[in-house]
User: What shape does this take?
Amino acid sequence: MNRLFEIIILLIENGKMTADELAVIFEVSKRTILRDLDKLLIAGVPVQSIQGHGGGITIDKSYRFPIDYITKDEKLLLLAGINALDSVHKSNELFSLLHRISNNDNEVPVIDIDLSSWYGTSLIPKIELIKQSITENKKLSFMYYKNESSNPNCVSPYQITFKWSSWYLKAVKDNETTLKMFKLNRMDNLHVSSEPRCSFEDVISFNSQANYSYLDQKNYHLDAIFNISQKSKLVDEYGNDSFTEIDVKLRFKRWFANKDYLLSWLLSFGMEVKVISPIEIKEELMNIIHSMQLIYKHDT
Assistant: This one.
């Protein structure tokens, strides 16, 4: 049932989408989406399928969401989702949908989701340009910063997604057939191309679990002692079962996949942590700290 509601909201917001696009968004087959559309038609929702080049699935602009069909709890969840979208993407369509569903209720929502970030001034224009590129069925070009380099990219944008507390673009690079993830904060100089984007019919469906399975790799087993002042930070990032309290210290043991991330994370604690093992990480931290000392050696 939730997927049917979400399909309606996406069609109202985007105006027109293809069954292939909806299939990737919900990570189901195209056949499942077509069955969902049949269910909506049976329920009286005026969805229409336009065939041919530039076609897709639309919903009658005069359609009014049947509020009587949903429970109070479902209504609150819908309002929370729409408010969340509105926090990063202001539009007349969202305002209209929010107004119709809320029905001028003064009830304070139980769930309040704000997806905006500290980078809101730069994030929102990026989302608008990407949305324009998708709705106009055009490719998108941009500079992308990765490690110490920045590279130009031309992609067929597919979907904006919020994962791991950050915003990403799912897109297909030219001459490739796999959806990749691009972090919006690392994208710069975005331009909507005049060239049409790919059809996505031959695109291998994106699987976040497969593409990010390396995050579960156990490469470095950290054993470290933190000062008690860092307790809230460890609880916030890894939970209250990630350490044991010994006197006024915290013994932290955990596997990490990426060495660069681990080093950066440890350095963020400054003098509030002491690494016990692995020796490799301990020695690299010492080398980094020594190099930092050399930078400021002649300033005193």
In short: The chain is about 40% helix and 25% strand. The chain has three domains: 2-102, 120-210, 217-299.
